[in-house]
Write a structure and sequence with these properties.
By secondary structure, this protein is an alpha+beta fold. The protein has one domain (18-101). The protein is 46% helix and 16% strand. It has helices spanning 18-42, 80-101, and strands spanning 57-64, 71-78. The protein has a two-stranded antiparallel ribbon. The chain is elongated, with a radius of gyration of 21 Å. Residues 1-7 have low confidence and may be disordered.
């Protein structure tokens, strides 16, 4: 026999429901991802980079040559992985909330 879910259950972490806990965790994750975007966009290094102030551009370094001839070249690229993770997190929150109200 299954016992009713308790909000004080130790595995639940004091949440009211598992779904509310999932939404809270996803919301926190999204907030932290957006903080990366905000802080990156405010970085002095990114001010002179096209699109840098959006926070969606990342810095990478590429090595050209070898040994004494090697040279590091700075590259700026759209951070598609971060954008995708934000989008997927928001999509999952929408699913959880939709289920909550159905």
């Amino acid at each position: 026999m299954r016992r009713p879910h308790s909000s004080s259950h130790p595995l639940c972490g004091g949440c009211l429901t598992r779904k509310q806990r999932r939404v809270a965790v996803l919301s926190s994750l999204c907030d932290r991802l957006l903080l990366i975007v905000t802080e990156r966009g405010a970085s002095p290094e990114m001010k002179s980079v096209p699109g840098g102030s959006t926070g969606l551009v990342k810095v990478t370094w590429k090595q050209l040559g070898t040994s004494d001839q090697r040279q590091l070249v700075t590259e700026y690229r759209a951070n598609t992985a971060l954008s995708a993770e934000i989008r997927l997190t928001l999509k999952q929150v929408a699913r959880e909330v939709r289920k909550y109200f159905d």
